[in-house]
Amino acid sequence: MEDSSKYLHPDKETLSRPELEALQLERLKQTVKHCMNSPFYKKKFDEMGLSPDDIKSLDDVRKLPFTTKQDLRDTYPFGLASVPLRKCIRLHSSSGTTGNPTVILHTQKDIDEWANAVARCLWMVGLRPDDVFQNSSGYGMFTGGLGFQYGAERLGALTVPAAAGNSLRQIKFMKDFGTTALHAVPSYVTRLYEVMKQEGVDPRTDTKLKVLAIGAEPHSEAQRQRIEEMLGVKAYNSFGMSEMCGPGVGFECEYQNGLHFWEDYYIVEIVDPQTLEPVPDGEIGELVLTTLNREAMPLLRYRTRDLTRVLGRTCPCGRNHVRLDRMRGRSDDMIVLRGVNIFPIQIEMILMKFKELGNNYLITLTTDDDNDNMTVEVELAGLFTDDYPSLKALEKNITRALKDEILLTPHVKLVPQGSLPVSEGKAVRVVDKRKVYQ
Questions:
Q1: Does 139 have pLDDT greater than 70?
Q2: Is residue 2 pLDDT above 50, yes or no?
Q3: Which residues pair with 364 in a beta bridge?
Q4: Residue 343 in contact with residue 210, Cβ under 8 Å?
Q5: Sheet of 357-368: strands edge to edge?
Q6: In sequence order, what are the residues at sequence separation of 6 or more whose Cβ sits closer than 8 angstroms to the Cβ of residue 113?
Q7: 242, 102 contact by CB (below 8 A)
Q8: pLDDT greater than 60 at residue 161
Q9: Are 122 and 133 within 8 A, CB to CB?
Q10: Cβ-based neighbours of 205, under 8 Å, separated by 6 or more
Q11: What is d(CA 32, CA 51) in angstroms, rounded to the nearest whole number?
């Protein structure tokens, strides 16, 4: 393929909606039939009296059972496999800090298709074989490292597997190797920029950076815009999860008007988290995904717990794959405080509106005198000042804005830049210290 091509896979990326849906139905029928090789799904189908022949249209996906993270844990490690273990060449897993980890198996075909999907994402935002791609994700069981690595290699870029952390080394690599594209979680990008400032490095003049791929943790549009202003390049939102292979599930195009989810690989549903019924386009609900091109471990109607909405199914870029809004948080990450439902991303959206504030914040939940309370600590953008009247006025304005958004009054605490904990991986935004009453 010529480098000037707008699409890496034009035969799949430019399908019309009828063509795309016809391909989905064909692959859904094959997937359901293949799932009969899984002891887990075979039992489910038998209990439901369901046969692969019952799938005659895309709407019939609603006949299929939901799959949850708990199902993966209950069948740990290989109970959802649809091929013999000898055909698998790799596994990835999530952390198992609260029980068994979730394990996903891959055949060589799965790895190849995963690489193709990630390469398609990177090509879509302008990366080509003459680019230098630096990956600051952790390698190993976490999928972000190897997923982007394989995708960038498949695209033909020179790859720099820098892995997570060691900001001084990351910056040296960027300067010495002429890095043009960087993958990092949003909170780490802000940390990297702080180190650049300390070292007197201007990313606009001292590096060749032109593209950022960000994801793996919820972030607001305001946070994305700050990142773009800091590094002087476009930052494209990415969506992935280990249960769906990893990165490459969804990615923004040049228009940054939502995440294109590759519907030749997945069936996308948005459902009400309580009733599990579909919600209308434009309404926020839980993302449910069915794999369509996986060999080792296909998953049917997997409940991601991520909250989003459908933005549209056409795009000026020429792709008709469904566009979803950025993730608004997770249904299981929702904070319930005094009967009010709050998502951390709501708080970030407010904080990012104040130019006096930095990018790092921490929400702490405590029980004081039998009442649950919220404290929001947020770093100042500049040097800490002794101008207490000014700081108090700022705290009051932030408190008022947060109350208008979350309908509760938190305690806002402004702290010096660099005083809150910094994670080299996903940022920890909420610490729950509340008492648990029996």
A1: yes
A2: no
A3: 375, 431
A4: no
A5: 411-415, 371-380, 357-368, 430-432
A6: 245, 265, 293, 294
A7: yes
A8: yes
A9: yes
A10: none
A11: 9
